């Protein structure tokens, strides 16, 4: 069974204090790993897709990396507006279709204090 | 602007009543999905549809039903058989098999009184 575990559950940072969020996964053949940002009471917003080990993607203060067992979301010099829940999800390879549903982790709730 | 519209945003229902949540997209996406989110939990898949007039059960389909009569629309009915329906419901769509990312609506919060 495909599984995604995110840690920590919650993280509190001072503004400017860099850190990383972890996403460990087990999947029967990885088609893609996805990072989303979710604000309270809103739908998740897509951030990154990673397809193979060694791949990295960057957007502003965020950088996502991927190994064969886990992904990290690095946050450099965070600001209060980066406060949100960050969700990781995987999509498994499927013989039938590329529309195999994503399997999500429980998320990491990030708070950045000014 | 293209996007996914969910309605209503907030819904209250009495026990024993069925309720239907609307999801409409104008992105011309083939695949659509319904997820449920509870506090401290990840998103759990209820149903998904890869094409019109076809849909598959997800991990927690019991007590829910869907239809996909039009490409743009994928309504979810929460029936009285769903034992614990109070939750945040998210609809999403995906362009097709060669793209992975989901686009989400703003969600519908259902509270059973």
Q: What does this protein structure show overall?
A:
The complex is a heterodimer of chains A (114) and B (113). Chain A is mainly beta and 114 residues long. Chain A has strands at residues 3-7, 10-14, 19-26, 30-38, 45-50, 56-59, 62-66, 70-75, 84-92, 103-104, 108-113. Chain A has no helices and eleven strands. In chain A, the strands form two sheets. In chain A, strands 2, 4, 5, 9, 10 and 11 form a six-stranded mixed β-sheet that branches. Chain A has a five-stranded antiparallel β-sheet with strand order 1-3-8-7-6, with no helix packed on it. The termini of chain A are far apart. In chain B, a hairpin with a 5-residue loop joins strand 4 and strand 5 (43-51). Chain B is globular. Helices cover 0% and strands 50% of the residues of chain B. The model of chain B has no long low-confidence stretch (mean pLDDT 93). Chain B has strands at 4-7, 10-13, 19-25, 31-37, 43-51, 54-57, 64-66, 76-78, 87-94, 103-104, 108-112.
